[in-house]
Amino acid sequence: MEKFDIIVVGASTTGAWFARQMAKRGHSVLVIEKNEKENVSREYDIFHMPKKEMERSGLEIPSADEKDFGFTFDGGPMLSPYGNYPKKNVPAGIIGLHKHDYIMRMNKYAEDEGAKIIFGATFVDFVKDEWGKVCGAKYKTAEGEFEAEAKLVADCSGIPAVARTKMPDDSTVENYKLTPEDIFYVVIYYVVYDSPDVDPEALHASFLNYKAVWSAPSGNPRGAILGIGGNYSYAYAEEIFKQWQKNVPWPRYTVEKAERGMTPYRRSVYSFVDNGFIAMGDAGCMTKPTCGEGCTSSLVQGQIAVDVIDELLKAGKPLTRDNMWPINKKYMEAQGIAFDSMRPLLKGVVSMSFDEAEYLFKKDVIFSTKILGGGGEDLELTPADIAQLVAGIGGAVVKGKLKPATVKKIVTGLLQSMEVTNLYKQYPETAEGYWKWKEKADALWEKIGPMSDICDQEVVKRLGIK
Q1: What pTM does this model have?
Q2: Domain 2-176+266-337: what homologous superfamily?
Q3: pLDDT one-digit tens code per residue, 233-261
């Protein structure tokens, strides 16, 4: 049986990055990837990453003459349901990349540092020691089934979370499987505008009130990517896109091709670590609350994990639940609180009618640069912010622009957002306090419910989803 310090399951963004970082620090790494090399990360051609976040994570930016480079652009504003009242939303300096080619670059860097990558290798199960603790992985290739020993198994397999979902029920890492309610089904249309007079760059924008509709560059100077994300199914997402088409004036275009993919859309797992195991990336459900993007946001946790695990390995300490617990605590402080506290507020906000949202966009209430500007990453509402928000909502009710039932949903979302913040700030310092904290968190998220609760019920019924 081969022995490694770390086995990584999955060779896309998070897996390739983590493998490289750990190998670079002198640790032996095996990566097993279920797809053959030519099929890795083929769900989309183009994907976007903010330059600032790439630099923070040590991701190289290709030069313009390299095949994985697409283009650069500045992010567009958030617009109202009818395409008005722009609010600055995303930072300047976004890189468009050809995903498969860029992931191949990341894999090569990992191999250059000494990581071993096996493509066409499917994770089967854990190898466990006599006490039932993870100490390696079983995997299968066309040549047969194999076992490898390791001090740590890192699940970077994305939505299937093929390793995390095999963790026992008494693990501090939750083993739930994502359901259609917990997933954004994303459809991307590569379009070319019919008129040569259209400036696609002037149309870059996103529309929160459809959950996720956006226009972004495609690499074609006369075209764009029009994207939509929705819970339950691709069919549901496409129905919501039709609503957007009816409500927002848009230049005529021709669809050249369409792509489909998925991203998690739920709160992250409470704990990423257990004895000999860590969940990372989409396998741990770390996605931005305003859009579901997770490529670079997952690397916030990744960098914390690299630092903690590297220090433990170099000190000769075992990768136990207790020793790796700081990864959980530091992630909560760095990003987890901001991301997950934003979700109930967004649920309340997106539940309003388009006409109500249009008015609040106009008045800069809720739909403001303060709340939307960082995509939820650095949001912390002060008492003054909350007082101003409440005053704006009250004024809308007095003028008949906001229904009392809508106000109730917004206020509920705001209060639940504050509850999440307060509870997550009390995240246990050690694994010993996890189970009591988890009981409180479970009760709170049961009360909050999933974003899919506010899906258009007429569309849901027509599609036979429920």
Answers
A1: 0.94
A2: FAD/NAD(P)-binding domain (3.50.50.60)
A3: 999 999 999 999 999 999 999 999 999 99
